[in-house]
């Protein structure tokens, strides 16, 4: 037998008693003796304050969890904000280097909350580009070299610089090709050393030189024949030979003539009784040129000259007119010489 607490009222009672003497609840055979005593219902008069209270520990866990969550959110926000700031900075630097207004406008539309100094810089840069576009449109519509050059002077770093230079180059070349002179071609090469028509300008000069006798060439040819006849007037054999090639294809009808043949001619026309001789060249040159090598030319020359002769016997004095046909080599020497007396 054992003394237990009544499961109903908690009054001490024998486990063999048929009923609780206090409340009358059945005891014998009804109470499980293996149930731990603390699990048996206690007297209803037991104060509630004796029950366990785990609420304080739970509150602590909730507070710690909240703090951890708050820190996590802060860290995430920091890295997100830092990433956004870096992205904005990269976009700002790219836009400031760009010359495309669309890029700058895209920055302004995307980063509306960017630093004020960034927005101001981008806006100023955009305004500048828009002004460049406006000036370019005006210069382009004018299609004038002076307007295009003024535009380049005003906007040396313009994105349209290459197009403006191309148009100026084209305008100059149109004028040069129409003028078609050595001076015009040389001026183009001077103004546009890397121009688009440099090769054409050089070819133009070459073609002119091959087909057109230039003023400086006329001066050389005229000086050559003046020296030739002045040497005859003064009977200067050395000076006369210096005006001729060593071998002339033709000289007064003789083929493959030498300088000796030229000297023989000099002595032949000076008669023993002649006191003076003077050759006067008329300014009626006709000169043709032919390219005989790379940049080398042969000139065919025709002109008239008057020979005046004075003798001891004045009755023999007189003048004769001759038509001269000659050739000048690339060395600026007479390579062929023939003349015919003109009967007037």
Topology readout:
Layout: E1 3-5, E2 12-14, H1 55-97, H2 101-110, H3 116-142, H4 145-154, H5 161-179, H6 182-191, H7 198-211, H8 215-233, H9 237-242, E3 247-251, E4 254-258, H10 259-269, E5 274-281, E6 286-293, E7 296-311, E8 318-328, E9 334-342
Parallel strand pairs: 3-9
Antiparallel strand pairs: 1-2, 3-4, 5-7, 6-7, 7-8, 8-9
Assembly level: single chain
Low-confidence stretches: 37-46
Tally of individual domains: 4
CATH architecture heading of the largest domain: Roll
| β-strand amount | 15-25%
Write the H/E string, N to C.
EEHHHHHHHHHEEHEEEEE
Rg from C-alpha positions? 60 Å
Number of helices: 10
Shape: rod-shaped
- Mean pLDDT over the full residue set: 85
Query: What's the β-strand tally?
Result: 9
CATH fold title of the largest domain: Nuclear Transport Factor 2, Chain: A
Q: Explain this structure to me?
A:
By secondary structure, the protein is α+β, with helices and mostly antiparallel strands. It has four domains: 1-44, no CATH class; 101-139; 160-211, no CATH class; 215-342, Nuclear Transport Factor 2, Chain: A (Roll). Helix content is 49%, strand content 20%. The chain has helices at 55-97, 101-110, 116-142, 145-154, 161-179, 182-191, 198-211, 215-233, 237-242, 259-269; strands at residues 3-5, 12-14, 247-251, 254-258, 274-281, 286-293, 296-311, 318-328, 334-342. Strands 3, 4, 5, 6, 7, 8 and 9 form a seven-stranded mixed β-sheet that branches. A two-stranded antiparallel sheet has the order 1-2. A hairpin with a 6-residue loop joins strand 1 and strand 2 (12-14). Helix 2 packs antiparallel against helix 3 (116-142), helix 3 packs antiparallel against helix 4 (145-154) and helix 6 packs antiparallel against helix 7. The radius of gyration is 60 Å and the shape is rod-shaped. This is Putative zinc-ribbon domain-containing protein. Residues 36-49 have a biased composition (Polar residues). The chain crosses the membrane at residues 61-80. Residues 36-55 are annotated as: Disordered. Residues 4-26 form the Putative zinc-ribbon domain.
């Amino acid at each position: 037998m054992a003394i237990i607490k009544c499961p109903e009222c908690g009054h001490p009672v024998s486990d063999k008693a048929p009923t609780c003497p206090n409340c009358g609840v059945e005891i014998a055979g009804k109470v499980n003796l293996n149930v731990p005593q603390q699990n048996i219902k206690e007297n209803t008069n037991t104060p509630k304050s004796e029950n366990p209270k785990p609420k304080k520990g739970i509150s602590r866990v909730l507070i710690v969890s909240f703090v951890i969550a708050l820190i996590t959110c802060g860290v995430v926000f920091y890295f997100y904000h830092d990433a956004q700031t870096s992205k904005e900075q990269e976009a700002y630097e790219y836009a400031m280097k760009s010359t495309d207004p669309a890029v700058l406008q895209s920055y302004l539309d995307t980063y509306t909350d960017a630093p004020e100094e960034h927005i101001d810089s981008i806006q100023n840069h955009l305004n500048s580009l828009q002004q460049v576009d406006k000036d370019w449109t005006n210069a382009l519509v004018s299609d004038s070299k002076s307007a295009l050059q003024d535009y380049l002077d005003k906007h040396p770093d313009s994105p349209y610089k290459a197009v403006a230079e191309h148009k100026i180059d084209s305008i100059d070349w149109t004028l040069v090709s129409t003028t078609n002179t050595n001076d015009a071609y040389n001026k183009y090469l001077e103004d546009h050393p890397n121009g688009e028509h440099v090769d054409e300008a050089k070819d133009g000069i070459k073609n002119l030189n091959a087909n057109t006798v230039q003023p400086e060439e006329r001066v050389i040819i005229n000086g050559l024949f003046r020296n030739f006849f002045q040497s005859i007037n003064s009977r200067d054999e050395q000076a006369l030979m210096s005006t001729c090639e060593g071998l002339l294809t033709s000289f007064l009808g003789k083929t493959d003539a030498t300088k000796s043949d030229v000297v023989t001619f000099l002595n032949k026309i000076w008669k023993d009784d002649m006191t003076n001789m003077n050759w006067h060249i008329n300014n009626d040159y006709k000169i043709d040129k032919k390219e005989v090598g790379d940049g080398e030319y042969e000139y065919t020359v025709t002109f008239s000259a008057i020979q005046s002769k004075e003798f001891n016997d004045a009755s023999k004095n007189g003048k004769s007119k001759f038509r001269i046909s000659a050739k000048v080599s690339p060395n600026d020497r007479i390579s062929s010489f023939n003349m015919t007396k003109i009967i007037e």
